[in-house]
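Beta-glucosidase/6-phospho-beta-glucosidase/beta-galactosidase, Sphingobium subterraneum. Tokens?
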Amino acid sequence: MFCTGIENSIPTINNGRTRVDQMEVCGHYRHWRTDFDLLREMGIGFLRYGPPIHRTYLGPGRYDWEFADLTFNELRRRDVNPIVDLCHFGVPDWIGNFQNPDFPALFARYAGDFAERFPWVQLYTPVNEMFICAMFSAKYGWWNEQGTTDQTFVTALKHIVKANVLAMQAILKRRPDAIFIQSESSEYFHADSPDAIGPAEILNSMRFLSLDLNYGRRVDSEMYEYLLDNGMTKEEYHFFLGNRLKQHCILGNDYYCTNEHRVHADGRTWASGEVFGYSEITRQYYGRYGLPVMHTETNFKEGPNGDEAVNWLWKEWANVLRIRNVGIPTVGFTWYSLTDQVDWDTALREQNGTVNPLGLYDLDRNIRPVGRAYKELIASWKEVLPAQSLCLSVPIVPPSHWNRLDAREQQVQAAARMAHEPPVPSIVEPGT
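Tokens:
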């Protein structure tokens, strides 16, 4: 699945007074038809994309579907497979922030109603980068609730992951063959000195918390104590163990040059740059979860030479081929995003209007060197990969085929809706 994305982050800053809307500042609301044209130009059939939740979800059971109807109906007409990103770093004003205990149930209703309205959609990322969302909002103090304690972090984390699990359940009731592609940041923390080994080990355990809970995996004993010491109850913890939907999931992981960190003895961290790289860190995540892998985000800033992003694309693609060739089932790659982004150099904490040249296209929709390189990469590899010795088939139903599901499948879906219990098929089948 060669993929790109249209950035739809919407966190709030300034204690909730200011909304940062990347679709607005990057021009997608005005140029969405052109943006979809660019997908065809690139030869891309998969798009990480979602409606702006703060403009769409007006209250319990109240929606403004106008923009979603326009864009998703056009994606369906073009037979583009959206990987639907329903919550990207923020919530509507009326929900408040991720400290709100009502958020999981409210979000699940939104996800279910979206799936009801767009039944042809099969691929979902209900909540994007759950670990990063909780860290930036409730530990680093940057977004939304701007919390800075372990308790605010654990509270945000448990609400975000529960929302993701409940959303998967709600979607499966409408679309039993839905596939969930997590987009989660893949991190590693390097000890800077012998005295930093302990703090680094703790951080390297914390990096797995969101996915451990999401996949119903028992956390490490130290992390169990950490969660309970900071506000998670035993009942809340057992909710995750008892609602395991791992069999419907693909492990989507994101990697940037900022995903590896050096750790000081006092726990302070700073970016280390690429040390292990995507392939080694992905081995660690795959070894823990054993799910098919998709590289769901990467990019690099185009610099003065003009080839910096092109070289990073080549390096990341080499890493993807490496993990695939050593037997890790790998199903997709993503350059994120389609166009340049704005103010990510300050992690959206400031509204400076700084254009970050990270996209396949600039904000005038002119192709960048990395866009040309990605287009060539897709054309060169799309027919080669299925012929390799590792055979993996993801049972995707393209939008153009949704109405042609056979009668038996339609009966299964109807029965599942009536029973309110989704069947549990395997998401991958060898061969095919």
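The radius of gyration is 21 Å.
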